[in-house]
Amino acid sequence: MKPAPLDYIRATSVAHAVQVLAENDGDGKVLAGGQSLVPLLAMRLSQPTVLVDLGGLGELSYIRDESGHVEIGAMVRARTVEISSLIADAVPLLPVALRHVGHVTIRNRGTVGGSTAHADPAAELPAVLRALDADVVVTGPSGSRTIGAADFFQGFLTTALAPDEIVTALRVPKSAPGTRVAVQEFARRHGDFAIVAVFAAVELGASGEIAAARIAVAGADQVPVRAAAAEELLAGQDPSPAVLRAAAAEVAGATRPFDDIHGTADYRKKITAVLARRCLEQALPTAERSSAA
Amino acid sequence: MTEQHLPPGLIGARVRRKEDPRLLTGRAQFVDDVALPGMLEAAILRSPHAHARIVSVDVSAALELPGVFAVITGAEVAQACALPQPVIWRLIPDQRMTDLYALAHDKVRYVGQGVAAVAAADRYVAEDALGLIEVEYEQLPAACTLDEALADGAPLLYENWPDNVSCRQTVPKGDVATAFAAADVIVSETITYGRQMGTPLETRGAVVSWDPFTDRLEAWLSTQSPNLARDLLGEVLGLPVERIRVRTPDVGGGFGNKFDFYGEEVVAALLSKRSGRPVKIIEDRLESFVANAHSREQRIEVEVAAKSDGTITGMRGTVYGVLGGQLSTVGIGPCWAATVLMPGPYDIPNVEVTVVGVVTNRSPYGSYRGWGQPKANIAHERIVEKLARELGMAANDVRRKNLIAPDKFPYPSPVFYYDSGRYEECLEAAERAVVDRGWAKRQAEAAKEGRSLGIGYSFHIEISAIGPSRILNQAGLQHSGFDEESVRIDSTGGVIVRSGLSAMGQGIQTALAQVAAQTLGVPLDSVTVLTGDTETNPYTGYGTGGSRGAALGGGALLRASTRLREKVLRVAAELLEASPDDLVISDGRISVAGTGVGGRSVSMRDVGDATYRRLDGKLPLGETPTLEERDVLDPDNTAFSYGTTAVLAEVDRETGRVQVLDYLIAHDCGTVINPMIVDGQLHGGAAQAIGGALFEEIVYGPDGQPLTTTFMDYLIPTASELPAFETVHLTTTADHIPGGFKGMGEAGTIGGASAITAAIDDALRDLGVGVVQLPITPPRLLSMIEAAEAGGTATDVEEQS
């Protein structure tokens, strides 16, 4: 378990990093926390010719309050986002979701840009980006462009990122005040990748009805899945047990899960419905929950 | 702690472990910390195929890589060795042996089997060189599962065998046919126990230096059995053992895996001889999942005949051991143990169990803490639970009806004599503790919230203090089972104990120090226990396995220390002008009994000085100088520990997840040397039992590719998945062992899965679910729940949820 020979370059700027990637013609890999990449290197599953370390790029380490959205630099550590009061106020789903990422030591190293670019379908952050319609800012030789989360995640560990582009920031829309959030994650052990996780952000109307719901699922498809049909079903409804059950079924219906050693596709689909229902129950007022189980 | 200075009482005292300051502050020395001048690092090329013929191996490009010093192939290993890799447990006389060498040369029979090895300047270069070795394989159809291996026309792993069955043996007791013919009720079950392994934090490793001029071989091994390893190195390499020295640094967890003798030790030796330099091989984690001994995988058929009052009159069974592509050091041993111990703690007059060892294209099946006993346990405990359901009795009432009564010891099981025990008292101690902890109330309250909690019990026995050498030899063991210990008091009264046992985190140094300190009457701090060097330390028979270290090492040391104490008293008597019979030793001072604090006394230092330095007028005439004794304990019998495990668990009926909420063990291992160490051993074993019951499984794909080769996929439970453990102790001494000690190193692993499955069944009792496959993963349990619900009780469940 020792990496194959490679060149290591510590980038001095985003432009420098992009230049090195461009020069290496797709054989470069970006080190941005290393929580997934380093094991892949050690097992020689990934054998890049050059490793571009973004660790020194302070310019990618910021959280900014913009109008309508929060911008998070790509090299911000997951733990920093998790404990940021700005994020807690503006995007309450994010810290709740990030608590399920590995363990604290992993979150201390892993970055938001790294997780986004790695695009593991079981990862929490991509699902949250998908739920909240966040944008991914990427930079390449010809400058920056913005890709919506719906278009960014294309398949298993596959994104819209070109080989000479790097993720430089995330733009996450602010949630409406009073938005209720919940995460239900089913993992075999605390800190494991999710077998399935469901993320919900729900806005309630004046009379307690569901004004709008945003729901995404990790681990039940090749990409993070947005449960649009369930969101439509919930909009304008009172959160009765029957409504939540119906919505949960729609969430499961939106997924195309796969088999692996931890669960079959069929199992994933079943627990997606269970987790979606529990997630909605958790997000909604307590009074609605007791009659729901 | 004050009791450290207060013998009597050190044996039985909860003293802190002497090892821990060093281990916890990073001062321990593991095999990877060994660095010798000129040392090379090696890596092993492993088979990517489950079953293939090796057509050719071309190492020329690897040899040309700068930094590469030596390359060796399987054919060269076979040529260089006097014997193939040894199998020491030869229990079945007509067993077909696999007789393979440290690296494969004709065929590969499992993914991960070594094919060639490289020694290079460092591990990076060695791994680069592996990529340059060209191996041409001719792939063969594989037999990757038990059923595939047993099927008609199955691919043969060994073409000179008629089938893939290595051995078959039936162990009888009494008249089973009559018992079954006369039974009121017969219940049967087939249990599938998944493939699992011990996963020590420190993977295996070896540093070997074979000096080409002196022909001396020095090895540093992360091993539980240094003397065995030394003897086997000698046999395999054709080298007299006096030229072999095995040193064992701190061992970062053994769990049985490191009892076995592996090919890497031989490969490191041969690479060292070739290169003329010391060679280090450290197994990385990825390799450990294919090269470390696998274990546990068995299919067990069990049935019992019983009277309508629950009395079991007969037991029949078959254990299919899913062996790998070659036999490990312990051969059929663990599967045989599962077979002969299947009646467990129950007084069953008629027993007939058969073991069938089947080779498959999987990694070899070797030792793992428990060594067959968790499977014997799941067989007798699952069948007792099923019998209870069949008869409408409480499972513990069926247990009580059949547990061996105290007056029946020594009890003849099909093979072993169980030495002593108060089984029913132990079961009742657990039942009382469960009442005290209010589990039934928790279960009832949870039910009101729609949650499903269950309470499960199991009873286990554990063979320990292995063991009587001649009897083990008669059974087929190609090694001994005694233990030798030496104890020396130096010229200043300090005590040095030398042991051949390995310190692998279990606390053996502390336990032995407690025995010596109490017996000699000295403070614990004055005792140093040295382990880990075959050149300077005594010979331990089997190794540090079979739950024998504390029992046999402790017993031997107790006897040696007792004799040494007598000599101390004789010398002190001379110094004090008193009779030895009138003297007492306390806290390192020898005084005349009854003379009080101000009475005449001498210190252990005075005795040391009189024995080593200033002898004249002090050392009694006729006494030899020096203060040293050794003892060898080859016990007349093994010793059987036992215990009751009780588990409170919750089942999530919608996902199949099981959470262990509370866990209790009532246990008896004879005289306890250190209750804290015993509790720690029980806790650690229980954690592994939880892993085995709920999480851990080595999964192979249909093509024989292992799919669980990292800790992301092979799931060992972490602190988050474990409950607090409670222990309750009984003491029934082993009267044939000095000190009355019984071993207990494997106890926690044995009964855990049985209690957890019983708790799951109890949580789902309205559905009639009976778990028969381990580990019971969430998908497996959910499908059992769904099948049971579809069977007609779906409405009830709907109301509950």
UniProtKB/TrEMBL annotation, chain A:
Residues 1-177 form the FAD-binding PCMH-type domain. InterPro entries: CO_DH_flav_C, CO_DH_flav_C_dom_sf, Diverse_Substr_Oxidored, FAD-bd_PCMH, FAD-bd_PCMH-like_sf, FAD-bd_PCMH_sub1, FAD-bd_PCMH_sub2, Mopterin_DH_FAD-bd. It comes from the Bacteria. Keywords: FAD, Flavoprotein, Oxidoreductase. GO terms for molecular function: FAD binding; oxidoreductase activity. This is Carbon monoxide dehydrogenase. It comes from Pseudonocardia asaccharolytica DSM 44247 = NBRC 16224.
Automatic annotation (TrEMBL), chain B:
GO terms for molecular function: iron ion binding; oxidoreductase activity. Keywords: Molybdenum, Oxidoreductase. Pfam families: Ald_Xan_dh_C, MoCoBD_1, MoCoBD_2. It comes from the Bacteria. Gene3D superfamilies: Aldehyde oxidase/xanthine dehydrogenase, a/b hammerhead (3.90.1170.50), Aldehyde oxidase/xanthine dehydrogenase, molybdopterin binding domain (3.30.365.10). Residues 25-141 form the Aldehyde oxidase/xanthine dehydrogenase a/b hammerhead domain. Transmembrane segments: none annotated. Its cofactor is Mo-molybdopterin cytosine dinucleotide. PANTHER family: ALDEHYDE OXIDASE 1-RELATED (PTHR11908:SF132), XANTHINE DEHYDROGENASE (PTHR11908). This is Aldehyde dehydrogenase.
